[in-house]
Amino acid sequence: MIRAVFLTALAVVFFFVIWVYNPFVHKEKYEVPQQYLKMATDVSYAKEGKQLFEQNCQACHSIRYDGVYIASVQANPNLKTLQEKYGKVLPRNVYESVFQSDLIGLKESFGKVPPDLSTMYLVKGPEYLFAFTLEPQKVLPGTSMPAVMAGRPEETAKIVAYLKSVAEPSPEEKNKRTLMGVSVIAYLVVMGILLWLWRGRVLKRMGLH
Fold this sequence. Notes:
Blueprint: H1 2-19, H2 34-40, H3 46-56, H4 71-74, H5 77-86, H6 92-98, H7 100-110, H8 120-124, H9 126-134, H10 136-139, H11 153-167, H12 171-205
Helix pairs in contact: 1-12, 2-11, 3-11, 9-11
């Protein structure tokens, strides 16, 4: 019974974090014009955003979850061979070991390897990503990130929309996960009730209830 209650509580907390309050999302507020914020959260702009990302950001950043790697790696003929073996998304250890020289080159240029952006939307949120990509020095003074998107707010919003499309599941997958979450919680609640009733019956038979 205690185990059923514990698992139910754990499931409720887990889905609360997913659906209601994500503690990992960046909480600092940034002023973003509504028309650009709307674009940044609309995955219908993801296709254009991916093209813009490849043109402006891929020299330094990768999006491993979408099989998009830094430009020098993307041009390496070994990449295609590895993707045929492992799939579009290479295991992180394989990627870092095979293309170590490319990553070291970035580290020497910027002081550290620019981060992979696969889950950056979930971590930072659309407002931060828009503001930082548009004006990196204003948001984080001293950063090595160049202002390649300065004066291009609409294109920046589309890049953020692309990052959202990579980090978040499709609407169909979201519905499946929601159904799964509700089913799991309902199952745990029902099992908890049945265990409680069964416990009471056992105790009654033993003369302890």
